[in-house]
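Anyone opening a protein record will find just a pair of labelled lines. With that in mind, the following record should read easily:
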Amino acid sequence: MISTKAIISDLNQVPTEWIFEFYLNLTEKLTGQDLKIKSVFTKENTPSFCIYPDKMGRYRFKDFSSGKSGDAIELVMLYYNLESRGISVRKIMDDYSDYIAKHDIAPREFVAESRYEVSDYEMRHWNNLDQDFWMAYKISSKVLSKHNVHPLQYFILSKTDNDGEVKELRFENQYTYGYFRKDGTLYKIYQPKNKKSKFIKVSDYIQGSEQINFDSKYLIITKSLKDIMSFKTLGIGNAEVIAPDSENTIISENIMKKYSQKYAKCLILFDNDQPGIDASKAYQRKYGFDYLELPFEKDISDTVKARGVQETRNIVFNLIKSKL
């Protein structure tokens, strides 16, 4: 029997979804969603290898445990230790040709599902429940206002399916807060009591970046806006604080270069659990920054809640001093 092999002559014929599914042996089909698995480059207990679509709908990866990231070509090049992207492209096209021939199928055309996005929201007034929640971390209304945090009455997630049908989901719960830029643009929703979906990202943003004045000696990069605000209560005047979108996001080189030129030293202060330590080490590998490990509670805000401002100040101050 003569076998005819489908010839793939252009990488654009190969869906990026297939590349990730095939080489990473994914059991879940990629249809526009984000996915997190254990690293394929290091041994880890907690998954920190993130697979996600970019704005063009093409999948990329970011492995926080190893610090490696990139597109589908980069994934195959690093995974097989190939010498160049060109060799990686050739391998992908050959493997995809073999795949569709062996499975007796035509080249697969992927139509990624649309994703739910925040389409509407309404602010509300602060209440006693809000006050009790934030004051447990010694975060005052003045600090919340300075960082543009507002309680939300509700928010709506919507998406348009491939058949044109619009679907909406409305959420109206206590302890729901919007994080805003100075210009009023919503960039994140925080639901501290929702274990499945604490954060809903709306757009990329370096938290705290609009509040720093570049007039302090040191820059602390912490995990979250809540930690930034708790840090502000400590009264450590020679340090300013920012935070990436999450511990799984490394601030880009061009931005960190600008920050590094403004401060005598940059330090990392993430959670003291394994994902936080792995994230800290990724920054250390990439930028050479020292990182601090809190000795007791997981993060700054939890330390303030458990031990109070003065004890937390002493702990953090001594950690910073040890790295100078």
